[in-house]
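N-acetyltransferase, GCN5, Paenibacillus amylolyticus. Tokens?
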Amino acid sequence: MSSYQVVPMVYNSKEQINAIILLEQQCKQLDSVHLKADLDHISQKDGDHALLCYRDGTLVGLLSWYASDTVTGNINAIVHPQYRRQGVFSNLLKRAILDMKPQGINQLSYRVPQGLSPGVHTAQSLRAIYDRAEYSMQLVNEALEVTEPPELTLSVAKDEDMEFMVTCSSQAFGDSEEWTRNYFMQTNEPSRVNYIAWQDQTPVGLVRINSINATTAFIHNFCISPDYQGRKIKRTALRILVNLLREQSYTDIRLSVVTENERALNLYRSVGFEVNSEYHYFSGNLNM
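Tokens:
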């Protein structure tokens, strides 16, 4: 029986990129769930790590991962339906763990599309515990016009804004300031831009943009300081941000939200975002 060959992806390899696109298409034809390889994230320099699994020269599986902090590896994987339960994912994961351990990563987060039962079974077989579900949302309508002059302004964060960013994010999301500071340092790539929301020369909020490519922007870490919540500031800031991204020629604007956060879900819909997919997340560790 032929053995599997696991190799690192070369981000600018046209041959590998074409093979990944074909694998996505094959999965889409054979699955009721559309699996995504997150090609935008793995086909750029300094993007997510990616491993490819071949059998007899044919790509049958892919695993990508990135570290959102200093200890957690976030995993996304796709396996050709005809090669599932045959060791493809386990071979990919073993190799990924070898790459993660020297970086101090000891926790894993598996992303599974809603409705993909093989993915759920795999996560459970690895003793991973269900963590949360998130909607992926995409802007489908133009943001409403902001009254001029706006009651709020956005500006690119400067080095001296770091302490506000740490405090604001920590208070909004319930993480420690130490973890939050490490997270910002870990995700300080050129593709990310941090914006501070100001009202009357006072910093009141934070939002980060990850530029996936020339036309796609992902909004994340969007938060308002507790003292200023409930004043419609978040909706105004989001409208300003969307208009700003449109001016920068982004045509595909995305974000994600926990499915149980009805307040945030309604906010994003009010500005023109709609749900296009749902993902479930499972937490595990490096011990297989």
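The chain has a mean pLDDT of 90.
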